Amino acid sequence: MLNEIIFLLCASLTLAGAVAAMMLRNLVHCALCAAGAFAGLAALYLQLDAQFVGLAQLLIYVGAIAILIVFTIMLTRGDEVRPGASIASPLWWVGLPVGALVLACLVGAIMASPSLLRLPAGAVHAPVRKIGEALMNRYVMPLQAVGLLLTAALLGAVAIGLREPRDAESKTQ
Amino acid sequence: MMASHSLTAAEEAAGGQQLLEVSMGPQHPSTHGVFRMDVTLDGETVVRLKPVFGYLHRNHEKIAEKCSYLGSIPYTDRLDYICSLTNNWAYALTVEKLAGLAAPERAEYIRVILAELTRLINHSCLAGFLLQDMGAAGTPLMYAFREREKILDLFESLTGARMMCDYMRFGGCRCDLPPGWIEQARSVAAHYPAFLDEFEALLTDNEIVRARTEGVGVLGAQLAVNAGITGPMLRASGVNYDIRKVDKYGVYGRFDFRVPLGERGDTFDRYMIRILEMRESLKILQQALRDIPEGPIMDPKARLRNLRPKPGEAYARIEGPKGELGFYVISDGGSNPYRYRIRPPSLINLTILEDLCLGQTIADAVVILGSVDIVLGEVDR
Amino acid sequence: MNGAGIIKGMIETARNLAGSYHDKERLTTVQYPEETLPPVENARTIPFLVYDGGDAAAGLRCTACTICEKECPPQCIYIVKDMAKKPDYLGKMQLHPKVFDIDIAVCMSCGICVEVCPFDAIKMDQVFELSTDDRFGGLLWGIKQLAKPNEYFQKLHRTEASEIDARREQDRRKTQAAAAAKAAVPAPAANLPPPANKGAAA
Amino acid sequence: MSRLDQIFVLTGHWLAGWAPAALRPLASAVLAIACIMAVFATCFALTTLAERKLLGRMQNRFGPNRVGPCGLFQPVADGVKMLIKEDIVPFSADKTLHFLAPIVLTVPIWLAFAVLPFGRNMTAIDLDGGILFFFAIGSASELAVFMAGWSSQNKYSVVGAMRAIAQMISYEVPLVLSTVPVLMLAGSLSLNDIVAAQGTYAFGWLARWNVFTPWGLAGLFLFLIAATAESNRSPFDLPEGESEIIAGYLTEYSGFKYALFFLGEYVGLFAGAGLGVTLFLGGWHAPVKGLEWAPSWLWFGVKFAALIFLFIWARATLPRLRLDQLLNFAWRFMVPLSLVNLLVAAAWYWTGAWPFGGAAPIRWVLCAGLFIFPYHWLGRALRGPLPPPRKYSYAE
User: Fold this and answer.
1) Interface test with B, best of C40, C41, C128 (most B CBs within 10 A)
2) The predicted structure's pLDDT at residue A80
3) A75 shares its domain with A132
4) Which tens digit of pLDDT belongs to each residue from C156-175?
């Protein structure tokens, strides 16, 4: 019973956040509502006992992606609200088929998933240790590949960042 | 609000970047009084800086023209309120020149001693304020104030006031040294180097201080000379100009001291030059306290009231702690000056603030302002 | 080595932390209401009027010459003369102030009034706890608040006061001696106008 | 296991025992929460006082000593002042966000305490991914800072918020990276396991705290710097650099909302210090054999206080960095160095299997060298090419 209530709360938080992120006028409010939706999702994961995924969701989505969005808004000064303008873009109808397509894909994938055939086991426990072991043994190559990719991205970012001050110096001199 | 939609001219100049205009002051914590900087920022970089002052204007020059010659001495205390005694001296020197008076030798020695003590106060407080601007929780400032108290005690026992001393008179000094004063002053001067060592241990090698000051706000010697910069700020840029050496006013010609010169003219040099200058001041102090003669302290020709100098004009200057402090007085033979004008080092050193700050960040602008060493009482008068 | 300067600074603050517990040099704070610094003889805050003897009205040294009023840079002194004359310490007839007000809020403690006073009548006080909740009259002091006995002056500025007292004593002796000499040789005019009168009238 | 050591655990059990059986887990959870909040709120009050007193002493003055004996009631007076102050919200502010920001800041920071082991058997929840939880929760405070800065509609606030976010994101990387060696060598993300891994004794007397190894010492060093930056404390207090941008994102806050930010900042600092104690200083373990008689929570408290003192000490001494220097320091010094520290930890791990005896000093020197050389060169590189030393000439 308690579980259901918590689930409903988290789900409604997630949904409300998502809807608000879509509907609100103020970009910053939208971004913050999206962060709220991410947090709700993390809570859902945690409620499902998926600690690692839940915490990673929190760390990455709330801690990094939401901040990134917010930072972008601040840097580009997108906080200006044009009064009277519609929140929908003129091409809003393009979104409809796209949304329908995504939904169809998801539903199709879920329905086709073999996990639906399995009984919901009472104690599916995925401790962090197990995830770690899986990552280090079975999935070690993909992990390394991802790591390499990220390192390359980091180095690229550093290279781009390093060039800037010299430009600035030459500009002032 | 980051409001305006259309780009301003400055924004166009900055490559179409949208700029942030910030009005720092007059009630900004770092502006040393009521000083305002209208700063235009590109991100955190200063692209334009307009100093705005006058918030502390007290009409000093006009008041002095309505006061008797004597009556404006206490007002000079309030120009650069950290260094009231050097202000007194510059004004007294001008009127002495105008009225043809000469201070007796003992008075000259007293003046030198007081001026050098004032320099110690000013420079150590400046270093404290500079670090305060860098965000150092007030520790260096408190150490500077601790030492300053000892000098202020000296001032109080001699002049009766700690800051608004009102001590020098035309043709001498107001009163003679109280018994034991010289010994006390000697002990202060003897303990000061230890404090300077402590101060330097705290600051000079500190990596953060170095990072914040080195290469920040570089003032070239050419620009410094052209802009009329004086004092430690000029010498930090490597220009050898110290009025104590150039004019040898008072009895400065008798003392053996050197003028430290920087080579890069950045904020660190401005800090370091002041530390080195304090060490030289201590040398002067030791010599003056050793050699001070007995004798009268007032020119017998001098009179306190109803001073009516012959019509004429005089400009006299001294090496104040902040730079060349000059007074220009015209007499029409009356009991008050016909024209009274001050050359305040703070104001003139402040004029190049924008040149120093362009291309630096907003945090640097605050530090640079701190290193210029202004006192708004003198800037706005 | 990186960070050596920072460590040096940290050691310095630690030394001061330790020092503040045992070294008087490193903890110079005087905790004001409980402790106060010993008075400094030369210290000055605001002016007061000196009177001799026990009666402020009779013994006030001030002759209402208004030199201080004229010389005061911020113009905070206001004097109204009382035309009825009173004998001073030498027995000469002198004017005295009916009103002598100092606006303490305006006074900037420069002490020029003291320097220019030819009668040693106005001296600098050392009081500084002057705050009041009366914005208008609280800091406008009249003779009643300003007049302080010579003993008080003696207490504040011992050297200066003794010097002045000695000089006045000498003056009085001289006058007495002159009077005695005059009494011995009878003189026609007893009441010469005192010289300060002229100054006050000018 | 002395009774004194377990006094809080036993009292908690006893108190929860009064609740009906069905509500007992809830009751003990509430008790734990209440205890943590009470203890660390008191800690907050005491730390503000201690900070001001120590700062005062380091600056050769007394610090607050007027309210109550030795100024002990100063925090009470401050609290009352904050409470009764007018709460001013700027006219153009985004009122909702302006109101929410202090709450969003404070709540997650309190949550972080849930996984810290304050003593033997004294962890509110022993999560498998305890440290992950800690960092995940901590990342929410950046959003709060942004909300505060943006909603105030003040230039200083916005600049402060930008600075704060840039700084917090940058320093989160070295903060997390510096803890990774600990996790690697303990083989667990659970803070209790990490503490347990430091519970044995080397040479029969010295506790095997992580800080007694080269990588642990370096890790603590990196961790403390990053934690200082994360909690916006001097010398990394740029977001509130009062000499530049007044109070940064706090500029438009007053009254109790300001107090909440203040509280959040200190509690965040406590969480950082608590994590530092747990990861590097052996948690609640005694430093040498023979001192275990003192209760475990006391050991935690002592180490915790020592770290807090370190933060205060640094604040009294150091001026503030500039934003570009701060970010350079994070990305070009802290991050590479914490990566190097991973290698050092690995080297330590592998050399631990060396067969010959008496290898301990060699191992130490080797691993320390592995860290010190990059430390030196990275620092050199960070400062850029060294200009010739300054010379001051003297004119006669």
Assistant:
1) C40
2) 56
3) no
4) 888 888 888 888 888 888 88
| Length reported for chain D | 396
* Token output for B41: 């920022």
Tell me if C189 is assigned to some domain.
Answer: no
Residues A74 and A138 both lie in one domain: no
Nearest residue, CB atoms, D319 vs list B131, B142, B273: B131
Q: How confident is the model at residue A83 (pLDDT cuts 50, 70, 90)?
A: low
Closest CA to C41 of C151, C163, C150, C156: C156
Angle, helices D255-280 vs D24-58, to 10°: value is 100
Residue A152: domain span: 128-173
Report the amino acid identity of residue A171: K
Flag if D243 and B366 touch (Cβ within 8 Å). yes
ipTM score assigned to the predicted complex: 0.80
Q: Evaluate whether residue A65 is within a structural domain.
A: yes
- CATH number of the domain that residue B205 is part of: 1.10.645.10
For the CA atoms of chain C, what is the radius of gyration? 25
Paired strand residues for C102: C77, C141
Q: Do B207 and C115 touch (CB under 8 A)?
A: no
Number of domains in chain A: 2
pLDDT at A86: 64
Q: What is the mean pLDDT of residues D222-242?
A: 84
- Structural domain harbouring B94: 60-380
Q: Cβ of A77 under 8 Å from any chain B Cβ?
A: yes
Q: Is the four-CA dihedral D342, D343, D347, D350 of positive or negative sign?
A: positive
Q: Do D and A count as touching (3 or more CB pairs closer than 8 A)? A: yes
Pair B34, B112 in one domain: no
Distance from CA of D64 to the nearest CA of B (A): 16
> Touch between chain C and chain A (3+ CB pairs, < 8 Å)?
no
Q: For position C86, which CATH number holds? A: 3.30.70.3270
Q: Which residue has the tokens 């929908």?
A: A88
pLDDT of residue A103: 92
Which residue among A38, A54, A79 closes a domain? Answer: A79
pTM for the whole structure: 0.84
Residue C86 belongs to some domain of the structure: yes
Q: Per the CB < 8 Å rule, is D60 touching C14? A: no
pLDDT in tens, B299-352: 888 888 888 888 889 999 999 899 899 999 999 888 889 999 999 998 898 888
Range D344-354 average pLDDT? 81
B40 and B83 both lie in a single domain: no
The DSSP-derived string for C138-185 is TTEE-HHHHEEEHHHHHHHSHHHHHHHHHHHHHHHHHHHHHHHHHHHS
Chain D contacts of C3, Cβ < 8 Å? 379
- Phi first, then psi: give them for residue C183, nearest 5 degrees: -60, -35
For A44-55, letters b (16+ CB in 10 Å) and e give bbbeeebbbbbb
The mean of the pLDDT values for chain D is: 84
Give me the number of domains chain B comprises.
2
- Predicted local confidence at residue D309, as pLDDT: 92
